[in-house]
Structures are given as C-alpha cells and as structure tokens.
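note to self — DONT lose this again. spent like an hour looking for the file last time. sequence + predicted structure for the chain T wanted, 216 res
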Amino acid sequence: MKKLTILCITISSIFLFILNHCSTKSIELWNGKDFTGWKFVLENDSVDVNEVWSIQDGIIHCKGIPNGYMRTESDYANYTLYLQWRWIEKESNSGVLLHIQEPDKVWPNCIECQMRAGNAGNFVLMGSGAITVDGETYTSTGRNISIGKKQESTENPVGEWNSYKIICQKDSITCYVNDILQNEGTEASVSRGKIGLQSEGGPVEFRNIRLELLDS
C-alpha cells in the first residue's frame, strides 16, 4: 500500500509538471532565417528596406537610418516577450514597440520600451495613449512622452548582448533589462496590437526574439 501511494504521488507530480509547462505556449516570433510574418515601415518610402534590415548568421542587423520599424503581421496580447540586442559600432537609439495600432506611420500609436543607450527601460507613449506608473497617470495626445526607468542603467557595453524581458498582461506592462526590473505600468490605454523593432539613429542587432503566451 505504501509503495502504491508513493507511485500515485509520483505520477500526480509528473502530470502536474507536464500540465503547467504545456499551459504556456511558446512562439518563436522571429524564425532566425528570414522575415516571414513581419512587415516593414520606413519614413522614406524610396529607400529599399533591404538596405536597412538584413540577416546574417541568425542575427537581424538594422542600419538605423532612415527612421522606421519592422513589426509583426499579427496582433498579440497577454504575453512575455524575450529578445536580445547589442550596439555594434557605438551607442545609439532603438526601441521595442508594443501594441502597435494601425495605420502604420512613423511613428504609430503604441507604447515603446526604450532602448536608447543609457535609457533602456524607459516607457515612451507614442501618438495617443496613456499609462499609470507609480500612481501617476501619463497621457499623450500626439506628442511623445517619456517615463523614466526605476534604476540606473543596467545595460552592457557596446558589443555585448543585452536582454529585454517584457511582460504584457491585460493593461499592465513590466520590463526587465538584463534581468533587472526597470519599469512597470498599469491602466495602459492599449493592451493588444502588433510588436515592432525600431530603426532610429544607428546600427543595432537583434536575436532570440520569442513570446510566451500568458493566460488572459
């Protein structure tokens, strides 16, 4: 009887482990080979996007000029987004665009997790939107508004990879830079949309872009 009880407990534990891990759906947001599932928007329509965005050895290279972004064709909500980025020549500017709303334009209505060197972890309200951080509600009606991060920069030097972990669940957004909590907001005016990577300023590289879908 004792052996049977232990066996039942073991089987139950294995079942719960499998259930918990299968309940989280993981998506490779970028397949590491081409830009299937992504769309490009540039400030200057006469520029060939292939001169701005390219892929080599499983890494996305962005020239950073002209301004624009690549974004998912699909909308997403309730997820944890993981990605890595690095500066390859000198510190510059970029960002992760969350909950992008159509129409596409430079810049779209969305909430940005900033990547500008020294400021990774800031929130930026682009276009029209709002979010509450530390009890204060910030509202934008067409002018970009930046909301500072919690701590001093936790970014790595030029040439080293940085990691972003961004949790979007319902109307909240929480972001970690190199595993350090840098910002969290609630009551965001948008909670679903496309996800984008920004071209702005100078060369930057991205890799390991994936989602874990969360329960709504």
